[in-house]
Every structure is written in structure tokens, then in C-alpha cells.
Give the backbone structure.
Amino acid sequence: MPINFAKKPGIVAYLTAGDPDLASTKSIALAAIDAGADVIELGVPFSDPLADGPVIQRASERAVAKGTRLTDVLGLAKELRTERPACGLVIFSYLNPVVRLGMEKFCAAAAEAGADGVLLTDMIVEEAGEYLESMRVHGLAPIFLAAPTSPDARLKAIARASKGFVYAISRVGVTGTQQQVAGDASELVARLRQFTELPIAVGFGISNAAHVKAVGEFADAAIIGSALVALIEKTAPEQAAAAVGAFIAGLRG
Amino acid sequence: MSAATVVNPVSGVAGRFGAYGGRYVPETLMAALEELEVAYAEAEADPAFHVELDGLLHHYCGRPTPLYYAKRLSEQLGGAKIYLKREDLLHTGAHKINNALGQGLLAQRMGKQRIIAETGAGQHGVATATVCALLGLECVIYMGDEDMRRQELNVYRMRLLGADVRGVSGGSATLKDAISEAMRDWVTNVRSTYYILGSALGAHPYPTMVRNFHRVIGIEARQQVLEMEGKLPTAIVACVGGGANAIGAFYEFLPDANVQLIGVEAGGRGTALGEHAARFQTAGGGVPGVLQGTYSYVLQNDAGQVSLTHSVSAGLDYASVGPEHAMLHDSGRATYVSCNDADALAATVTLSRTEGIVPALESAHAVAEAIRLAPTMATTDVLMVNLSGRGDKDMGILARELNLQGALAHAD
Ligand SMILES: Cc1ncc(COP(=O)(O)O)c(C=O)c1O
């Protein structure tokens, strides 16, 4: 299983697949891996991204307008797996495209593509019976979100259901960049630690080397999302891969 | 896709309507939903809560609303006796206040000072802004830019009442996008904020709670029709946006198997995806999926992207539908038909001119179905229409669509 944070802190790079187009997402992902990203989260664009702030909303809208489908994202995962066998690969999606394809069919296809794990933004542990069963059958790691608002009983259930790593949300709110890492984050990671030995990755608002360093003090990995998506948005498509590579290389200081 | 492909919960999670409903939200909201579920259950069981709510529904909102026999309309159509449940006469002009008031009192009980809500036609926004003014709560309303344009009068009403109305430009800039933006606000301010969702939609406990606050419609109507006709209605017709007014009207009659329940969706301007909001339509209709916290029928393309919708009425212009309606649809206990823009506009004119009642464009969809149905029924049949709201808010659209500024209006 390639989800493995050998260097501390680990780097997880989130990309909205299909923004600006699938071929660009592929070269950007390869550049991110080569620059030191341990795990790539391939975001499936969705028409109604209610957990996302303006940056990822715009990226999703562009990718949906391009006609990017869940099956295209799985195809991209397969190409990345072939070219970079050692990198961690997670499919990151809202639930509806997965339900539309069929949960079992989706898990089979994700495993076949060589993905290591799946994160479904609007899937909570209580509703995850069929999902967890299909994931288990196909040897995939279900990654759940843990929030600063989650009471300990929920964190325990989340830790139990997760494999690969647990995604700790740094603060209440939607995705987007921020000035500094919220105090909520270290407290949440400390609470989660009681319940799991899995790596804990912190995401939402992590946007520069200082943030990554701060996260490294108390967690195993930092997840960079909106900062990458914003960089891609403002960079000419043919230069985006190089820009993302340089940005990732600079994150571990 | 069959309902069997639903993502099954681990155990009997609360808030299921058959296969539908449930809770599909970002984890950050789960603590708030659990807190709400407990607080609502406590309020529901507390007689003092009901005394306060019922008192305000009566003295402030004007309940009970009349059940009115539309004699001229019935005689003109020459079939069933048509009765109108007059939710349009409620304070603020629509059924929405039943729920906004209930949730407003609940928010106050929970100590939440900041209220957010989404609105489509603006009726739920107006009801929420009204309740916030009454209870002294801060109020933020999210509304799609397109809806702000077409329901402008309600935007002014909300602002007059002290609400902060925020336009939403994403997606189709209608109800669905306003709900997403309200959920983003809630995720961000979850510790201080209460979200008054305006229809029987969303994650548990909302569909159950919103339905229960609207049950009063059916409770009153049942008693009224028994008093007036000595029997239950043959059929009840209600428009279905998210499904709040319809489930409120239907619920008390669910055990009465011989009372037909008919929901009317927006047929818009065509049957192709994107041209309507008829989630249950046989051709070009929705399939089960997850949108904004609940599992129900969703208008979407084959890649699972939610489709745009169209309706002349902002309140019916939504890609999904309350999960309890999905269950009633599949079980056949209720039937769902659609009515297009043109028929809703024509029904608005007919009801205005035969009864002197101008319905909201949403409610006009139910009226149109009654006009179609009544002549096929016996004169001994009773056809009840839930008139969910009044048409004042729609004057701009009606002026344009019916050419009321011009001479044609007099020629009909
Ligand atoms: C008058 C009126 N009727 C019906 C609706 C549709 O909502 P629901 O189906 O939840 O009753 C609205 C929504 O804005 C409305 O304003």
C-alpha cells in the first residue's frame, strides 16, 4: 500500500481533475509527485460542491463544463499509477457521482485503476455500511474526515472506520486558504491520537511552507488543496506543472 | 437505477423514509445535526413549546386558515366540488411561516442568536425574516441572483424586515445554489448559527421536523372537510417544490387509503433535462441520488452531475425533492404529475377571475391540476387543493407573461 509518509511531514496534494483539462491535471500530478508529494488526491469535479470555498468551486465549475466524468478521473488515476507506481493515490469525490455509477462498480473500478484510497466528502460513518463493505472487498482504504466539532465518540468511530490515514479538518468552514493554522487543528489531532495509530493528515487552509512546518509539529502530513488549485488557476496551462512542482518542492522548507 | 443501490447505513439510522433520506453532510455539520435532533425531540415533547407555537400560529399568523368551497370554479368546471385550503391567507402570504416560526422558536430555545436561511421564491426568506424580527434574532438570507431578479418584491420585504439578503451567483443562481451557500455559511459559523431550512429537504432531522411543523395544514383540513362535507375528500392536490406544503397537507390522510394524494411538480417548458423541475416525470425525470444532505430523486446527467432546472415559479425550481415524497412515490401511496408554465399561468388567471383569489405561481400548479381533474370527477366528489400561497410576489412576472400592461389582458 503506497500511502506512506516516510519524510515528515508528509505532503498530500489535492487537484481538481479536469481543471484546466485532464491532460494538464496529469502533468501537474506527475510534477507534484516528482517534487515530493507523497499522496495525490484526485478531486472529482461536482456541480454542487457545498463543502468547498470559491477557489475549488470555480475549478469544479470549469472541470464540469469540460465534461470531466468520474470514469475519466479513474482513467487518469490508472495512468498515474502506471507511471509512478510508488505514489499514494486517493480518489476524492462528492457522493452523487459515485452513487450514480454504483458503489460496488465504483470501488471495483477504483481498485482496478490502482487507487489506494477513497475520500467521500459527504459520507459520514453512520451511513457507510455498504461503502465500507465494498471498499474492504476491493482492498481500498476509506479515508474519513474528522472535524474540530466532532465529539470524541464520533472521532473514535471515524478512526475505526478509516484506513490509510485520517483527514483532520484544521478548522470549521469550507475549503480555502487562510493566514495561519488554526489552534483547532492541534487540539483535534491530539484528540484523534487517543483513538488511532494511523497517520493523521491536516487539511483546509494549508497554503505555504510555514503552515506545513506548523502542521509537522503535531501531525504526520499536511494536505494542500486550494493553494494549488489557485496557483493552477492563475498560471498559463503549459506552465502549470512546473509552477506546481516548484511550489511543492518549496513546502518542506 | 433502482433504490436498491442506495448506500445502506450500518444500522437503522434515524431519518429514513424507506430507502430515502438519511444524512450525507460534511463531518463538520454532524455535531450540529445531532444537537438539533436532540433539541427538537425535547421541544416536541415539551407542552410549553407547543403552547407558545400554537399561540403565535393563532394570534400572529392567523391559524386556523379557512377551508373555502370554490363554488363558482366548481360549477364552471362541472365536476367535483373544489375546496381550497387557504394557506395564502396566513401572515406573510404562504405556508412557509408554519415552519419558520417553529424553527425560530427552537433556535431561541437552543440559545442561537444568528439565523441563516435559503430562499427560492422569497416566501421562506420573508417568513424567516419576519420570525427573526419578532424574536429579535440576527437574520441572513441566501437567494440566487436569478430569483432575486424575478422575486424582487420579496427581496425588498426581507430587507425592510431587517434581514441581510445575500445574492448567490453560482450554478443556476436559483434555490439549489442558495441552499449550498447557506450550508457553506453553516459549516463556517456552525457554533453560533441556526440554519432554518425552508422545505422538507436536507439531512435528518430536517425532513421530519419541517413536515411536523406543517402537519397543522392537514390536521385542520381534515376536521374542516368532515364538518363541511361529512366525509373525507376524494383527492388532495398540492404543488411540490421541496415538498413542504404537500407533505403537510398529505400527512394526516396517509392512513386513509381511499383519499388520493396528488403532488404537482413544475413541468416548465419541456420534457428534456434542464427544461423542467419534474423529478418524478417518467421520461427525462430524476433518478435516486444524493444532493444537499439527503438521498432522494435528483435531476442529473448520466455522470451524476446535477442538472439545471426551469420553472416559471422560483419555489418549484429545484433539482431534488423531499425524501418522504420519494418514498410515497415509490410505494404508490401518492401520485406525482407535472404542470407546465403555460398551464400554471392560465390557472392563475382562471382562479383570479372566478374566485377573486390570486394564487402564487407555485400554488397555481396545483390549481391547474385541479382544473384538469375536476371535470373528470363526479359532482359528489370532493377535491381539496392546498393553496400554499398568494400571488402578490409574482405581479412582475404576471405583468410580463400575461401582458397585463397591454390591451390583450382584457381580451383574456
Ligand atoms: C407559495 C409557495 N408554495 C410552494 C412552494 C414550494 O415549496 P414546498 O414544496 O416546500 O412547499 C413555495 C416555495 O417557495 C412557495 O412560496
User: Anything to note?
Assistant: The radius of gyration of chain A is 16 Å. Residues B 94, 120-121, 123-124, 199, 239-246, 315-316, 360, 362-363, 388-389 surround pyridoxal-5'-phosphate (CB under 6 Å). Chain A touches chain B through 50 residues (CB under 8 Å).
